[in-house]
Design a protein that fits this description.
Blueprint (H helix, E strand, L loop, with lengths): L15 H14 L4 H11 L8 H27 L4 H29 L2
Helix pairs in contact: 3-4
Length: about 110
């Protein structure tokens, strides 16, 4: 039989309201196991649930900019000229990309203060 690493039990009692609050916090953190949640909270003191919506938008913008750059490069290689409208569109998408990147970095910097 395999020996368990964690062999010291810890027990404590809570009120129904406290139990309900613990379960709500577990759901917010995306943790399904009460044991895992309580152990994580006891050892580190906090759980961070990241909303990666902005990161997904950033990836979409990156793909868009990459596609535009490839189309412009192909056209430049074929015709030996680049349209000003293509450059302006690429600059606008690049600015949007950096705007999203700055938003994400700002959010991460705020999380660091926790």
């Amino acid at each position: 039989m395999e020996k368990r690493n964690r062999n010291i039990p810890i027990f404590f009692r809570v009120t129904p309201q406290e139990r309900e609050r613990i379960e709500e916090n577990m759901k917010k953190a995306g943790v399904m196991s009460l044991r895992v949640y309580l152990l994580k909270m006891a050892l580190s003191g906090y759980i961070i649930q990241l909303d990666l919506t902005e990161t997904r938008e950033l990836v979409t913008l990156l793909r868009s900019v990459s596609n535009n750059m490839n189309q412009i490069a192909r056209r430049a290689n074929e015709t030996r000229s680049i349209y000003e409208a293509d450059i302006l569109d690429l600059q606008a998408r690049y600015d949007a990309l950096w705007g999203k990147a700055k938003d994400i970095l700002k959010t991460l910097a705020e999380l660091q203060g926790i």
